[in-house]
Write a structure and sequence with these properties.
Layout lengths: L3 E5 L1 H18 L5 E6 L3 H13 L5 E7 L14 E2 L11 E8 L3 H12 L5 E8 L12 E5 L4 E3 L15 E4 L1
Parallel strand pairs: 2-3, 2-5, 5-6, 6-7
Antiparallel strand pairs: 1-9, 3-4, 8-9
Bound molecules: inosinic acid and magnesium ion.
Inosinic acid binds next to strand 5, helix 3 and strand 8.
């Protein structure tokens, strides 16, 4: 079993999600459609929509599922949509929400799907950003935490499907 070192505890995450909701509410329209990328975003989405509610936002919620990262720590680089793009994104202002921005490929892929489906405008949000790992040009509009080149788990984020249940975010050795 790998060792997990705590990086952000429950209180820090809660505080940062609250701040992030304030940043989003201050900059974006109140009738956003949040589109979460499964599975990694599910815990973050659940907290973010309730934090947005406290700011007076009334977001609707959809998800897209992208092909799995696999069981290693490196992205296959080969991303595919599993299932469909949610109906009704056409003409909507969308905030795309993922757990992590790493190479940037997943968010870029998901944004292109939304563009093709007629969503407009589209912003992006990642709970954790790893800008030093970026392989394509993708700037995340709203970032929770910025980390270096570490592999993180917990709060919905997995390593080979483990650790999603951890209430905190940690680094795997
Ligand atoms: P990207 O396409 O390389 O930006 O990778 C983004 C996706 O890879 C994220 O949505 C995660 O599912 C996964 N990923 C990237 N880094 C990590 C990590 O540190 N822990 C767990 N999953 C990760
Ligand atoms: Mg993911």
């Amino acid at each position: 079993m790998a060792t997990v070192t705590k990086l952000f505890d429950e209180a820090e995450i809660a505080q940062r999600v609250e701040e992030l909701a304030g940043e989003i509410a201050g900059a974006l329209p109140p009738d956003l459609m949040l589109v979460g990328v499964l599975k990694g975003s599910f815990v973050f989405m659940a907290d973010l929509i309730r934090a947005l509610d406290r700011t007076g936002q009334t977001p609707s919620v959809e998800f897209v599922r992208l092909s799995s990262y696999g069981h290693g720590r490196e992205s296959a680089g080969d991303i595919a949509l599993i299932g469909d793009v949610p109906a009704g994104v056409g003409g909507r202002a969308v905030l795309l929400v993922d757990d992590i921005a790493d190479t940037g490929r997943s968010l870029d892929y998901a944004r292109n799907l939304l563009v093709d489906a007629g969503a407009r405008p589209i912003w992006s949000c990642a709970l954790v950003d790893k800008p030093s790992r970026r392989e394509i040009d993708f700037t995340v509009d709203f970032v929770g935490f910025t980390v270096n080149d570490v592999f993180v788990v917990g709060y919905g984020i997995d390593y080979a499907e483990d650790y999603r249940h951890l209430p905190y975010i940690g680094a795997v050795d």
